[in-house]
UniProtKB/TrEMBL annotation, chains A, B:
Belongs to the tRNA pseudouridine synthase TruA family. GO terms for molecular function: RNA binding; tRNA pseudouridine(38-40) synthase activity. It comes from Candidatus Enterococcus testudinis. Its EC number is 5.4.99.12. PANTHER family: PSEUDOURIDYLATE SYNTHASE (PTHR11142), TRNA PSEUDOURIDINE SYNTHASE-LIKE 1 (PTHR11142:SF0). Keywords: Isomerase, tRNA processing. Residues 6-104, 147-248 form the Pseudouridine synthase I TruA alpha/beta domain. It comes from the Bacteria. The keyword Isomerase applies. This is tRNA pseudouridine synthase A. Homodimer. It catalyses: uridine(38/39/40) in tRNA = pseudouridine(38/39/40) in tRNA. One of its GO terms (biological process) is tRNA pseudouridine synthesis.
Length: 248, 248
């Protein structure tokens, strides 16, 4: 068996998330169906760097799988790309050592979150950015962002019901840019890992700060409380992109 | 009756074009349904600056309609915007003189055409750019573009079967830009009017030139032939945007 690592992008709009499940179309299922077909009907299973929820997108999700034969890499990439549905793109394929694992060996993940702040909401971004039509003081958001950096117990920013025990994570980068037209915010978060719905709760909290319903210096206190109720609402999934996964 | 002019955007993906027709969802029908509802069920008809085909988008389509009462403009805009489906946005509403006509008084129209030249095709652009995965010499396209400028009989760039008699049009602007990532071409065409499928045939011809299957200086000869068969193929509708309509 040869182990392949692939970098994929997908438009999450018409998926019930990445991970295979009994009901609903998933990214994993579509890719496994294609690989199994390429393997003359013998089942192939893939492993992703992590799940993404329904409606969440990926520009750089990483998967690995074992395939019986060595194939020319561009042939493998092209075959997978063109045989999967058009809302999945296969950007890169490489052969990796047998010990490579797309989930266990992750060192960093980068997410983007986009917020459409235009009036009206752009019909072209309705599936690709969350919409926030209320007043925003962007300066307050810029002030609050550095408070996320470093190693913290992010219990307050984890959806209740998560089975993960250790909720300590390190965030290396937390920035916000405004697009040239001034009608879209692009948040970038890079860290050693993120809890369930963590980015969406962070963005919901930052928007509450920008909207003046929480002071700009609220984040340290929210983190200290270790209580999901202390943070803001969960932002909608359509603004979230798994942007990059790093290894080694 | 008060005459209103409105500037609208729409994602053409799920429409059978702008103009009302017996079968299929259209932009005109959705807006007229909303206006009629806002008018207590009494029918309101809209007039657009022109049709757009199935799959074609608009950032700045202009319509006009007559409504019995004067309403605060932002209230009218917000009502129309929020009550139409989410793939239509109402960007601006103003009250105009009774002689204003969205179609007859057009002085200039601007279209954009986007071509995804990345490998693989971006899943996020599959409805918003035409895909061209073949080699392209962009310099040849840049060389050819100025030959479109000025007043010409564009019969060679008009879909056969068009009922329009005078096929002379003036093009003021014909440019191509590459996006920062280098994987998307953005063509802009501005003129006093365009024939049926004219932009799509122009782009199909330019891509043929860029791909080396036609010399870079072909356009004057194609124009001179006044024969649709002399030009290249019709590019796909999903790359086309009605960008701006100017009056007076």
């Amino acid at each position: 068996m040869v182990r392949y690592k692939a970098t994929i992008a997908y438009d999450g709009t018409n998926f019930q998330g990445f991970q295979r499940q009994p009901n609903g179309r998933t990214v994993q299922e579509e890719i496994e169906k294609t690989l199994t077909r390429m393997n003359d009907g013998r089942s192939i299973q893939i492993h992703g760097s992590g799940r993404t929820d329904a409606g969440v997108h990926a520009q750089g999700q990483v998967i690995h799988f074992d395939f019986p034969q060595t194939r020319p890499l561009e042939k493998m990439r092209f075959g997978l790309d063109t045989q999967t549905p058009e809302d999945i793109a296969v950007k890169d394929v490489e052969i990796v050592d047998d010990y490579f694992h797309a989930r266990y060996l992750v060192t960093e993940k980068t997410y983007q979150f986009r917020v459409d702040i235009g009036k009206p909401r752009s019909p072209f971004r309705r599936h690709y950015a969350s919409y926030f039509p209320y007043p925003l003081d962007l300066e307050k958001i810029q002030q609050a962002l550095p408070d996320l950096l470093g190693t913290h117990d992010f219990t307050s920013f984890c959806a209740t019901g998560s089975a993960v025990e250790d909720k300590t994570r390190t965030i290396y980068e937390a920035t916000m840019a405004v697009n040239p037209a001034g009608d879209e915010l692009v948040f970038t978060f890079r860290g050693d890992g993120f809890l369930y719905k963590m980015i969406r709760i962070i963005v919901g909290t930052l928007l509450k700060i920008g909207n003046g319903r929480m002071p700009a210096d609220s984040l340290p206190g929210i983190i200290a409380q270790k209580d999901r109720n202390a943070a803001g609402p969960t932002a909608h999934p359509e603004g979230l992109y798994l942007w990059k996964v790093s290894y080694e």
